[in-house]
Request: fold
Amino acid sequence: MSSTLQAHHLRFLCTAFLLMLACAGFTRAQLTQDGRWDNGISEPWWFTDETTRHDEIHKAQLRWQEIGAENSAAESNEWAGDYFIGGETSGSYLRWSPQNGFVLMNVNKCAAYVRSFSYGEVKVTPASIEFYTAKSVKPSSLDEHTPYQLPTRFLPVKWRGVAYLVPEKEMDDFGDYVAGLGSYNAGSAGYWSEGASFLYKLGVKETGSIDELPVVPRGYERFIKKPIEAKITAVGTRVVKRRQEQPDEDAYYQSEMPVTINAGKAEGVKPQMSFFVLVSGASEEVKIRKVREHSSLGVIIRFLKEDEDAPPVLWKDEEDMDYLPITVGWELTTSPFKFAAAQFPD
Reply:
C-alpha cells in the first residue's frame, strides 16, 4: 500500500472512530440526571430491563435523533415528523423521515417508561407512506400491555391544518370519526375513547372552519362523510323514572324528556344513535329511540338529585341542577368536534 493510500486509510479510520464517539456522546447527552432518556417531544422516558436490550435501545435512540436532524432540514418532506396516537395515560409516538426511516415508541405515560419500541424503513409514494418494520423490542416486563402495531400502508390526510396518517384499510373508519358516525357516534358502545384514534402530527395548531372536510389523496374522497345535522321540532312531557343498576347499589332518579327531530332514515339516522346539543352550556345528548323517514323520536335524559326534606318521589326539578329549558329549535349534530367547539368557543 502506498503512503498516500495509507494516509487516506488512516484518515478514514480516525474519522469513523470520532463519528462513533460523537454518536455515543450524543445519546448519552440526552440522558437526564436520574437516567431517563430526554426524547425531545415529551417528558423523559425510562427503559426498564435496559441491560438485556442495551444495543437495541441505543440503535433506536440514535435513529430517533438522526430522523429529527433530517426533519429539521428545510427540504424535509412535509408529512415527515413526530406523530402521536393514544391518550393521557398511554400512547404511541412515531417519528419518521424519508431517508432515516422510523422509530415507534409505545409508552406508559403515567410511569413514563417505554413499554416496547420498533424501527425500520419508510417508502414514500405520491399517494401513500409505507412503513416496513425491521426490529421490534419489548424492553419492559412491568406489564402485559399489547403494543400498538404499526400498519404498513398509510394515507396522508390534512384536516383543519393538521396532518394525519390514516391506515389505508381504516379510511372508512376515519370518515366515521370525522362525522361522529358508526362506532364513533356518542350512542355507540365503542364510542368512548381515551384519546386520539388516529396518528396526528404533533406541534401543529388546528386552523380553519369546524365545517371543513378532510383533504385526502385522489380516489379516497368517497370515504369522507359529513355529520348529520338536525333540530328539535317538538318537545313532549317529562317523565321521572327510578333506576337501579344492581340490587346492592343505591337507586337513583332520572328525568326523560321526549323530543322530535327533523332528521330520519333518509338522512342516515338510526335507532340508538345520539346527537349532541349545540347550545353553549348544554352538555347534553338526544338519544334516538324511533326512526321515521324524515323525522325521529328521541329523549334527553337528565339525572336528578334527592331533596333530603321531601319524600323520595319528590325530586328536585331540572332548574335546581342548572339545566337549561329544552326548547324547539335547539340545533343538533353527530359531530363531537362541533359539540366541543360549541362548549368551548375561542
